[in-house]
Amino acid sequence: MLLVVTYSQAARQTLRNVCNGHEETVVQRFGRAALLEATHLGAFLALRLRAKHAGDVQVERTAPFNEFSDAPEAVRAAATAYEDREHPSTSYAKFAVGTDHPAPESMRDAEL
Amino acid sequence: MRVRVGEERWSGRVIDLRGVRERCGVEFDATRVAEAVRSDHAESEAIAIDCSDPGPVHEHVGLIRSGMDVQLRAALAAAARSRGRIAPQADELAAVRERLDALDAPEIDLRDARRRVADASDEEAALRERVATLQGRVQALRDVSGKASEHGGTVEAERAVETKRAVESELTEATRRLSEVETERIAAEQALARARERAAANRERRRERLRLQDRADNLRRAAREHLAGTVREPFEDAREEAPAEVTEASVGEALAVARVAELDAPVVLGRDVEAFGSVDVAARWLDAPVICP
Predict the structure, then answer these.
(1) A61 min Cα distance to partner chain B (Å)
(2) B207 in contact with chain A, both atoms CB, cutoff 8 A
(3) Could B210 and A54 be called an inter-chain contact, meaning their C-beta atoms sit closer than 8 Å?
(4) CB-CB contact of B73 with B224 (8 Å)
(5) B43 falls in which pLDDT band (50, 70, 90)?
(6) In chain A, which end has fewer C-beta atoms inside a 10 angstrom radius, N or C?
(7) How many CB atoms lie within 10 A of CB A78?
(8) Nearest 5°: phi and psi at B162?
(9) What average pLDDT score do residues B199-207 get?
């Protein structure tokens, strides 16, 4: 899908107008951003916004996330284990100490 | 104030220009007079008005006439300001504006960087395909020339060897180009990655600017609301006190706003002046200088 993020009042307003006029192409709206369908029309709308508002419009293409191919086993296991923790107030940093689960800092620096 | 129409001149707090058109032979209407109030004393114009600078209230009620449109809340807020009222949001609004002025986000354009990556990737893919094709052909020709020499067919063998050499040299050239284009693609990707990092910092500033603009808008609205509230009562009183002959709601509102406001520059009052009987009475009621066009 195409993620369109706006960075000015005028660009945000144009995005709103575009979304109102093309509901079938809009997957999701979030205030000053929207997800558009990955179609020629989606690209056209995104590019139209960028042509009008230049640097105040950011367009990114999103990809589906498959944790089994995109995230390592250790991260998946850590997420599941943390959600099963005994005390809800335990932070993950504390939770990971003394276990095989990765520390938050090591995950921060490791790219997917 | 001092007013000149053509060669005739007037001065004072109340100036009645009715009947002047015919006498001076100068065509003008209320809009033209209101413009002259706003513009700097222009000697070259047929109408020149020298008076105090009109304030924000004048944008709302500087010209009062039938069919006008009053944005009441904004007009009341301007009237409150003219009376020296300051909104509690003023300091924060000034601070937000100052931060906005200091925030500059230079233009960002990643278009060239993206195009360079796309072009290099396309060229690389095409060359990779060509190298694979040539490799296949070389392999096939090796087999053919091998078989030809086995069978002792010298003419065919020579021809096959020649073709093989030609294709091999094509392959060498294509492989060399592929390696060049690959280097270019990697360089282009790195350049785009750097440009994206710069853009991210720039967008952070734009995001902050948008946040501050929204904040300023909210503060402005809240300030307007507050200021309008401070003069709402005298405004309602003034509306009640307006001459009964004023029947148009917007004119009644405009008159009341002008009465509530502190006005140094003249109000241009159209035909509704007749509701007051005379321009002098209207000026006293409004407690403002008045020009009647």
Answers:
(1) 13
(2) yes
(3) no
(4) yes
(5) low
(6) C
(7) 22
(8) -60, -50
(9) 94
Pairing of strands A2-6, A33-36: antiparallel
Please report the residues numbered 51 through 80 in chain A whose beta carbons come closer than 8 angstroms to any beta carbon of chain B.
54-56, 58
Q: Is A44 on the interface with B (CB under 8 A)?
A: no
Residues 6+ apart with CB under 8 A from B259: B238, B241, B285, B286, B287, B288
Instruction: Identify the pLDDT of residue B41.
Output: 60
Minimum CA–CA partner of B210 in chain A: A8
CA-based nearest residue to A4, from A21, A65, A25 = A25
Q: Does A29 touch chain B (CB under 8 A)?
A: no
Per-residue pLDDT band for A52 (boundaries 50, 70, 90) equals: very high
Give me Rg for the CA atoms of chain B: 40
Q: CA end-to-end span of chain A, whole Å?
A: 19
Is residue A49 within 8 A of residue A4, CB to CB? The reply is: yes
- Min Cα distance A8 → chain B (Å) is 5
B137, B166 Cβ separation under 8 angstroms: no
Taking CA–CA distances from B106, the nearest residue in chain A reads: A55
Could you tell me the pLDDT band of residue A53, with boundaries at 50, 70 and 90? very high
Of B42, B10, B73, B65, nearest in space to B267 by CA: B65
**Which contiguous run of DSSP H or E holds residue A33?**
strand A33-36
Residues 6+ apart with CB under 8 A from B109: A54, A55
Q: Which of A13, A58, A59 to mutate to test the interface with B (most CBs of B within 10 A)?
A: A58
Per-residue pLDDT tens digits for B156-172: 777 878 888 899 999 99
Q: Residues B95-108, buried b or exposed e (16+ Cβ, 10 A)?
A: ebeeeeeeeebeeb
Percent helix, strand, coil in chain A, to 5, is 50, 15, 35
ipTM over 0.85: no
CB pairs under 8 A between A and B: 29
